[in-house]
Design goal:
The complex is a heterodimer of chains A (128) and B (475). With 128 residues, chain A is mainly alpha-helical. Helices cover 66% and strands 6% of the residues of chain A. Chain A contains eight helices and two strands, in the order αααααααββα. Chain A starts with a helix and ends with a helix. Chain B is globular, with a radius of gyration of 22 Å. Chain B starts with a strand and ends with a helix. Classes of the chains: A mainly alpha (128), B alpha+beta (475). At the A-B interface, helix 1, helix 2, helix 4, helix 7 and strand 2 of A face strand 10, helix 10, helix 11, strand 13 and helix 13 of B.
Chain lengths: 128, 475
């Protein structure tokens, strides 16, 4: 690539934030390595987040959320249940209503943070 | 008669006339941003084009000082002609008017998020592209190396009598005409108006202390990283230099802007590559990079450059996105009209004795509010549609609103000679005539009363064509 093209490409292709870069690298490593969750919590897995960010990052989101708002697994599941069966719809509704929190700069919905917290608790326990 | 202060190529000694003081918020070096030669700053512009949006012309209750003195339709025919001069793809400006519409757009709710179409000029270098047309034109007499150093009014100060032009040997000549158009770019127009004070102590067109006020930029800043939740063909969002002729960007609908009290903005998505921290325009492209760019493309895109760009064209298809779902989000936000953001004269003078420009660029709380809340509204809309998650850059994620150390613009100097029907609130009227002056008109982005989210040159050219039409009808 010639120098002018390289410069112009740099102009259009902005670098990632350092944190996003770490996530990107981690995602490549961990994708597909999700251990199964216990049955009571498996249905609440944040599939989209796991696919995009990888488990390690989802656990980090969950831990961060738990440190702000400590909750037991039972309580997390009951909160998710009380929101209704369609978690995708619930996440969308959260964004629509502004039930959004910043975790490491990422704008995440309250519902998906409960999901991440479940994954984190599972990760901490090491086994179901 | 066309008086050009520079020659056909850049001369550092002449370019030094543009050196000036920056006393407010840090800005780009003034002698590096505008180019003082035939063809002007199109010698290194990037070619990003879009018309102003209808909302930019309206007087918005949440944006003090907003509104143009005419409706958007006034500029429509001139935009079409301007697009031809800038060698853009023809057609309307709705995303559906794009030539390539096969790839899908992100499935977002139109109530929460819209799309804006952008087109890219090759980029047209006016100095090389139109030089022969101007030189050979029967009705144009071009004088190069003919910098105007002063405007002289009639004794009663109601009209321009003549211009003082400095000749290469140091002598000055007077140029008389019936009609005058000042088109020296925003800062240079202000410089000339303020320093020409033989009969009008405050300067030409400055009876109400308006000249120089309301300097605006487009706030071009990286605002975050977007992670797509599902692989999606991003062909229509992509920009590859030298190749892409059209793309779409994201934009918050007017109703959302109204609800949250936001300025207009356009958000571009570019594939993010691993590397250093996100950088903004001014830091990414220091003056030596701009100069290299000008040199490499001085005759526009050569066929070799285009062939190389085509060969390097990237894929933006589903598979590419599957490999990396991350995109950087860059905003181009309108700056709120602000009388305190202004250009005045420095005590320092250039080699010909003309006071240099002093730029005091200032932002308001509305600019910052808009940047924070607009980006959050974008993140919410993407999340609600299940399309993506957005990570805000640190200064936008922080609890306390504050600008980062460096705020970048797009090298788009606008305002300073604002258009307003009321001479107490602007310098030119709706026809771009300087209030109180019978025969002086201004061209350039200096007349913009509000800058919108679109880069200015398409509108500058459209306004110039409209002005030419107006003058030929009145002459
Ligand atoms: C790096 C960069 C990238 C840009 N990219 C884009 C983009 O992608 N899209 C976009 O829309 N805009 C872009 N711009 C902005 C664009 O270049 C300007 O908006 C546009 O060129 C301004 O046109 P103008 O005619 O008002 O001023 P100029 O192009 O600066 O022309 C002014 C002319 O007046 C002459 N002159 C000045 N003083 C005198 C005098 N005293 N006497 C006689 N002649 C004089 C100059 O020599 C020059 O020929 C970019 C600018 C920069 C610096």
């Amino acid at each position: 690539m010639g120098p002018i093209l390289q410069r112009m490409r740099d102009r259009a292709t902005l670098a990632l934030t350092r944190r996003a870069l770490l996530i990107q690298l981690a995602t490549l490593v961990v994708q597909g390595s999700c251990a199964p969750l216990p049955e009571s919590t498996a249905e609440w897995q944040p599939h989209d987040l796991l696919r995009t960010f990888g488990r390690e990052q989802v656990v980090a989101f969950g831990r961060s959320w738990l440190s702000r708002s400590p909750q037991s697994r039972r309580r997390l599941v009951s909160r998710l249940r009380s929101n209704g069966p369609d978690v995708t719809q619930q996440v969308a509704a959260d964004f629509g209503r502004g039930r959004v929190h910043l975790i490491d700069g990422w704008m995440l919905s309250e519902t998906e943070l409960l999901q991440c917290a479940l994954v984190a608790l599972h990760g901490a326990a090491g086994a179901p | 008669m066309l008086l050009e202060g520079g020659g056909f190529d850049l001369d550092p000694a002449l370019q030094d006339r543009y050196r000036g003081e920056v006393v407010g918020r840090p800005y780009y070096s003034l002698e590096a941003t505008r180019l003082h030669y035939f063809g002007g700053t199109t010698g290194h512009w990037g070619g990003f084009c879009a018309p102003l949006d209808p909302v930019d012309f309206s007087s918005r209750s949440w944006v003090p000082g907003s509104g143009w003195p005419f409706a958007p339709e006034t500029l429509e025919p001139w935009y079409t002609e301007a697009a031809t001069l800038l060698e853009l793809q023809p057609g309307g400006w709705a995303p559906s008017d794009a030539e390539e519409t096969n790839a899908p757009l992100l499935p977002v709710s139109s109530d929460a998020l819209g799309h804006k179409l952008w087109r890219f000029s090759p980029p047209t270098r006016f100095g090389s592209r139109y030089r022969n047309d101007v030189v050979r034109h029967h009705h144009i007499q071009l004088l190069t190396h003919a910098p105007v150093v002063s405007l002289r009014t009639t004794a009663d100060g109601t009209a321009l009598d003549h211009l003082v032009v400095r000749q290469p040997g140091g002598h000055t000549v007077r140029i008389r005409a019936q009609h005058f158009v000042l088109a020296c770019s925003t800062l240079q127009n202000v410089r000339l108006l303020l320093s020409s004070n033989d009969h009008l102590p405050a300067g030409v067109g400055n009876a109400f202390d308006q000249v120089g006020r309301g300097f605006m930029e487009h706030l071009e800043m990286p605002v975050g990283t977007l992670a797509l939740m599902r692989p999606q063909d991003m062909q229509r969002y992509a920009y590859d230099w030298g190749v892409t002729r059209e793309r779409v960007e994201l934009q918050l609908p007017v109703e959302v802007q109204r609800r949250y009290g936001l300025l207009n903005a356009s958000f571009s998505l570019d594939p993010a590559t691993a590397g250093s921290a996100l950088v903004s325009t001014f830091d990414r492209e220091p003056p030596d990079v701009l100069e290299a760019y000008r040199q490499d493309t001085r005759s526009g895109m050569t066929s070799e450059l285009r062939a190389a760009a085509l060969a390097e064209r990237r894929a933006h298809d589903v598979n590419t996105v599957r490999r990396s779902p991350f995109f950087t989000v860059m905003t181009r936000q309108e700056q709120a009209p602000n009388a305190a953001s202004r250009v005045t004269l420095s005590n320092d003078r250039d080699a010909w004795g003309v006071p240099r420009a002093r730029l005091d660029w200032q932002l308001t709380a509305l600019d910052l509010h808009s940047m924070r809340e607009g980006t959050r509204a974008l993140g919410r809309a993407l999340g609600a549609a299940g399309v993506a998650r957005l990570q805000l850059v640190d200064w936008l994620a922080a609890d306390a609103p504050a600008w980062p150390e460096r705020v970048s613009g797009g090298w788009h100097d606008m305002g300073g000679t604002r258009m307003h029907a009321d001479p107490r609130k602007g310098v030119v009227d709706a026809d771009c005539r300087v209030h109180g002056m019978a025969n002086l008109w201004l061209a350039g982005a200096g007349v913009f009363p509000a800058g919108g989210a679109a880069n200015p040159t398409l509108s500058i050219v459209a306004l110039a064509l409209r002005l030419a039409n107006h003058l030929s009808a009145t002459m």
